[in-house]
Write a structure and sequence with these properties.
single chain, 266 residues, mainly alpha
Length: 266
Amino acid sequence: MTEDSQRNFRSVYYEKVGFRGVEEKKSLEILLKDDRLGILPPHHESHTQVMMYRKGQYSDVLHALKVIRFVSDATPQVEVYLRMYQLESGKLPRSPSFPLKPEDEVFLAIAKAMEEMVEDSVDCYWITRCFVNQLNNKYRDSLPQLPKAFEQYLNLEDSRLLSHLKMCSAVSRLPYDLWFKRCFAGCLPESSLQRVWDKVVSGSCKILVFVAVEILLTFKLKVMALNNSEKITKFLENIPQDSSDAIVSKAIDLWHKHCGTPVHSA
């Protein structure tokens, strides 16, 4: 049995017997030992040398940014990550005073959340960089389809709730960028976010749809009491944090309910 099949079998088995997400809290640590995002090679004996190269590359790019005065020792760390990413991808603006683009804001939100999960700055940068690249490349065509899928599954779960959103003209104004482009960074606490991002990294961005659906189902009474699209959106952008773990667990249940056992379904 291959390493991938062993990993998937174990995950599927635990979930079938009721232990959803047993390994999810260590998912980011696993990334550093795996080749899922292209951070490290599959051969463990090469990891030390590759990490040395990664640290060297990190230092070189950071030094270059300081020389051209794009960053300094006072620059917030997440902004440093963004400038490094821009430089390496050939998208560094002519001046640090140029306004940020929407894609830059997405990167910063993800980097800020990742910073709470990963202590080492080099690891944090590389994981953030590869996570964003996965969103921009592998899921480039899938992410724009998620709002439509959200509406479809919410209708299956609670058509009355969807009707209320339509009546309030709120469907098109829901925080889709926060949910799908930022993958709930800034919406869910990091402990819950890890479990969602674990699924995204494993190959399914559709989990984001079911988290959004479950948020609506969890706060149905609150949403139904609001009759203004602006108020609905504002509430959904700042949901109570104490329900997040339960929301993610129920979202995974919904994911399995509608998609079977979607270990790598997009």
